[in-house]
Amino acid sequence: MAGNILIVALIVTDQHLHTPMYFFLGNLSCLETCYTSTILPRVLASLLTGNRTISVRDCIVQFYIFGSLAGTECCLLSVMSYDRYLAVCKPLHYAALTNGRFCTKLVAGSWIGGFMSGAIIIFMFSQLTFCGPNEIDHFFCDLSPIIKLSCTDICMLEVTTVIFSSVFTLPPFALTLASYVHIISTILRIPSTTGRQKAFSTCSSHLIVVTIFYGTLVIVYMLPKNKMLRSLNKVFSVFYTVLTPIVNPLIYSLRNKEVKEALRKAHSKLLSSPQVFTKSNVSRLKWSEGGGCA
Question: Is 130 helix (H, G, I), strand (E, B) or coil?
Fold first, then answer.
């Protein structure tokens, strides 16, 4: 979480990072901060206290936020791949095509679309009646383990979920795939080795993130649910809900010269700024320590 917050702070404060690519990256880091905040605190609290109970209302809220963020991330990753396609394949038109208004519309559409799709599924989900065992076979409130506890007909909910999941997964994935096919074919046509390396470096970090995200989604949600894979699903769920948001800032910062330079500048500025205490502040601090009052 700290890594994503740091990237957002760097993008906001450093003028050199006020470009479309970093605007999209800032939104992705913000989204992954929300991801981690939705799931990780409750998981850690359960491990520390041993209390693994969650109310139905809290479970519905957690699933809504998680599902909406997943849909938003699919759209946002496709937007970022399209941005890289324009940068590599249409460099002369890139600045004109990716103006601030256009980028804002793409990002707003990703967020609004993701949360609207989640709202429809949650409305149907909230109409279910639960009975029998009240234990969810997962470490967070995902759809599949929850609807197994329902004693009402879930056919319509499953169909609706498949439709909305397909709409917010397949077209973005197709756009991402098409963008990288064009990017790779364009890079291979660059005559110089240095030019190919420079072009590929602009999109390699994003390609790694896309591969990890879609790879884990396929394993968790599309493979057959036999007994062995159900246990593996929990492991891979940790990847895209907890580990991926933690690893992504490292991927972007370690493979990106601009981010490393912005981080170096921020660190130097922090070290060079002197701490100034006024006399009244020092007195107040000593009085608090001596008198035992904060």
Answer: strand
pLDDT in the model for residue 273? 60
Please answer whether residues 108 and 223 qualify as being in contact, where contact means their C-beta atoms are separated by less than 8 angstroms.
Answer: no
Contact status, residue 83 vs residue 21, Cβ threshold 8 Å: yes
Q: Which residues pair with 176 in a beta bridge?
A: none
For 130, phi and psi rounded to 5 degrees? -110, 140
User: Closest Cα partner for 78 from 131, 121, 114?
Assistant: 114
pLDDT at 164: 81
Determine what percent of the chain falls in helix, strand and coil, rounding each to the nearest 5. Answer: 80, 0, 20
Q: Are 126 and 150 in contact (CB under 8 A)?
A: no
- Are 251 and 205 a contacting pair, CB within 8 Å? yes
Which helix (H) or strand (E) is 30 found in, with range?
helix 20-49
Residue 230 pLDDT > 80: no
Token duo for residue 66: 């998680």
% of the chain residues with pLDDT over 90: 10
Over the stretch 6-27, which tens digit does the pLDDT of each residue have? 888 888 888 888 888 889 988 9
**What radius of gyration do the chain's Cα atoms show?**
23
The answer for residues whose C-beta is within 8 angstroms of residue 178's C-beta and 6 or more apart is none
> What sign for the dihedral angle of Cα 173, 233, 246, 187?
negative
Tell me how far apart the terminal alpha carbons of the chain are, to the nearest angstrom: 30
Token pair listed for 88: 């590599």
